[in-house]
Write the structure tokens for this entry.
Amino acid sequence: MAEITTARGVIARNPGEPGVIEEFTIDAPQADEVLVRILASGVCHTDLSAKNGVFGTSGFPFLLGHEGSGIVERVGEGVTNVQEGDYVILAWRAPCGECRFCNVGKPHLCSASLNAHQGMRTMEGELLTPILGIGTFCTHTLVHSRQCIPVDKALPPEQMSLIGCGVMTGVGAALYSAKVEPGQSVAVIGCGGVGDSIIMGARLAGATTIIAVDIDPGKLESAKEFGATHTIDAREGDPVARIKEMTGGNGVNASFEAVGRAETIETAIMCRDLAGTCVIVGVADQQAMLNLPVAKFFDIGGSLRVSWYGDCLPTRDFPLLADWYAQGRLDLDRVVTRVITLEESEEAFHAMERGETLRSVIRL
């Protein structure tokens, strides 16, 4: 009989209730699957939303976490891209290579991303749903081998874990979704961990005017450290008017919404220059609705688009971001606000809600 692993992790059993640390079981890796021992996991707002039922109530119980770095411990039959002992970042999108998007050369839009079989269970035998097909608030997890991206073992696991979602999403939104160009102007609405990653991505792309917008003075100060050239406290007057004042009355070439609220999306849409690009990165709840003046939206022109995972390709981009970190071009040390234990994960959600952290990172 194939060996079963007993692991320990944070499980959310019911919407709105705290996650609880429990033991659970993991099936032996099947073909193309791997067992990963988690070293570090970022605490992302998406986990909080899933735990609170924002995306719906199906799928419980959840194994929380989806930003992870770790060590490959066991591999299933046919695995060729990683081997036991590899140090990896986990990706929640692993292009299948066969869907309608992969077949036309757009694997970043893959509609059938690869995941392991549903082989993790509570001690009572109930199937667990790992968040975004990964589950990283735990000692071990089961993933498809293509979700594992090897990186240099000398790089710290806390910082590498964040590349797995929030940092990649933000940097990719600037580089790939908006295709920011040297000399352009951008506005970032919402300056948490993802928003600050957008700022870093815009700086890497060569933007010369980077406007950070938030309602938290502390986050605005942090945004300047990541590369914002201007800041706006949205509580002090109309942010759209102020963005236009800072750009010669025109508005920005690219705007980014990293909050997930209808009113901030409207701000991002309306603060653009003619033919500007607006990229929605924040994840709104199921009830959020937009109310736009269509004629004005038409007159601005340009494009409105959603960025999924920063339109990244993990096999290409995770090593790239890891190299930029090693070279000092990507300031992930500053993104890591707190390093915590698994037992402190629930408090980390509360700290996030209070606006005290960019990212808490669980170190296993």
